[in-house]
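By convention, the C-alpha cell line describes the chain's fold. To illustrate:
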Amino acid sequence: MKAFQGHKYPVRDLSPSDLKFVSASDDHQLKIWDFRRLKEDRQLSGHNWDVRTVDWHPHLGMIASGSRDKTIRIWDPRSTKCLATIKNHADMVTQVQWNQNGRWLLSSGRDCCIKLFDVRKLDEEMTTFITKRQVHSIAWHPVHETMFASGGSLVDNNKMQSEGSIEFWVTDSTRPKACVEGAHGSQIWSMDWHPMGHILATSSNDKTTKLWCRPRPGEHLPTELGGLDVDERIFSDPVNHDAAEQMANQDHIHDSTLRNAARHHRHLRGYRRLVSVD
C-alpha cells in the first residue's frame, strides 16, 4: 500500500491509464501519478476553480477535465500542455467521460444540459441534450455505443430538491428515452454500468448504493413508481415497440435510424431496483 499526499484540498476524481493515473482536486490542479515509481509524475495547471472531474482517453494520450469554472480542458499528459479549452457550459461542469469509440466526449453540468463533442472538432458541440434536472453523473453504456445514463436532481427557483432521478438517453435524440423518477432520495453523485451492460449501479447523497436491472419478460416495474402502464411510466409518449420493430424489418425500409430506435426502445423498456445498500 502507498498513500499519495499530493493535493492541498479534497480530491474529486481519479482516472487511470495502464501505468499511470490522474487526480483532480479543489486546489485547481490535476496531477499525474506513476504506479511503478509510486510518485507524482506531472502537474496540469490551467483551471481557475475546483476541478470536479477527469477522464483519461481510452486509446490515446489525452485527458479531459471539467471544472467549477464552467470549462472543459483537453490535455496532453506528456507535455502537460492544454490542447483545447471548451466554454460551452453555463454553469459548473460536473462530469466528463470519453466514449469507448474514442471519438466522442460527453459532459454534464449544473446548467441542466448534457453536451456531446467530437474530438475531431471540439470548438462546438455535436448535440445538446436538454433536461429539467441539474446533472451530477453520467455513464456511457458499455455495449450500446450511442446509449448513456445520467443522474440528476430537479431545480426549483435555483434550489435543488431532495431527489435523484435516472434518465436514459440515445444520441440521436435530445430528449430522454426513459426515466426512473425518485430513484434516490437525494443527488446521484456517481453511476457505472456492469461491463456486460445489464446492471447499472448508482450511489447517492442519501447514503445508499443501488443496483438497477431491466425487468424480465412480462415483469412490471415496482408499484412504488406509480399506477401507470409500463410504457406510460417510462416514456414521455407511449411507444408501440412491436409496430416499430415490424416496420423497421420490412424490406423496403432501409432507414438505419428507425431500426436503431426500435432496438434502443426495446432495451429501455424500464429498469427496476435490484438491491439497495445502506
Remarks:
- Residues 223-228, 230-244, 251-255 have pLDDT under 50 and may be disordered.
- Residues 104 and 118 are 5 Å apart (CA to CA).
